[in-house]
Amino acid sequence: MKLPKRIFSFLVLVGLVVSALAEVPFNGLVLDREMKPKKGVKVYVKDPKRYASTDKKGRFGLTDVQPDDTLHLVVSKKETLLIPVDGRRGIRIVLAGSGSAQAENDEEIANTGYGYVKRREFTGVSSGISGDRLRATGARDVIGALKGLVPGLAVTNGSGGQEVTIRGKHSLMLSNEPLYVVDGVTVPSLNFVSIYDVDHVEVIKDASIYGSRGANGAIVVTTKTAAAKK
Q: Which among 151, 167, 173, 182 has the fewest CB atoms less than 10 Å away?
């Protein structure tokens, strides 16, 4: 059955509008009670495996956040706060302690556009992946599991051994390997990390938060031991 041209055009327009809304960035800032940036707060909407994490300036960015959604802020292992979006596109959150927080609209943050998203969102350009999901792939090592889960991550075997890239090869003379970080410590590789000890992994393609060391992106591993201490 062929749809009338007018109806077809209307449906296409609706689809484009919905698609555009899904791509609108949602930027946020998290501060403590002393109005200082709160680093390391995990923020998600529905799926805890698709999240952003605040950087050292307290910033985070997400996409596909709807006006009636609720933000989940994982402040610590025992404290998760629920913050209604209430139609806001940019939000400033001040943690007041005792499981409470104050949230207000912030036009300046909203107007940052994709700036926060590109830095911190672990969906699309970056990925936040739980250890359980890694182990479910059947792979025996972390890199092998990530290869099938992270778009753009490539593993090649050359004369110098295994080479991992997450941003492609853009240098002929210098290394294209990402920065490896395990429990906050920079390491030369992930060969010594058992996949069974991993709590979660963050693959960051835009790892400018690590300065020049993050030029090729970063693979950040948190083990179960470190997660338990946190």
A: 173
What 8-state DSSP symbol labels residue 121?
A: B
Distance CA 33, CA 26 (A): 23
Whether the CB-CB separation of 59 and 26 falls below 8 Å is answered with no
Copy the structure tokens of residue 121.
Answer: 């969102």
**Predicted pLDDT at 168:** 62
d(CA 4, CA 57): 53
First to last CA, the chain: 59
Q: How far apart are CA 39 and CA 57, in angstroms?
A: 7
Token pair for 13: 């327009």
Asked if 199 and 226 touch (Cβ cutoff 8 Å), the reply is yes
* Dist. CA 221–CA 226, nearest whole Å: 10
> In this structure, what token pair is assigned to residue 108?
């300046």
CB 174 within 8 A of CB 195: no
pLDDT tens digit sequence for 130-144 = 888 899 999 999 999
What is the C-alpha separation between 63 and 22, in angstroms, rounded?
7
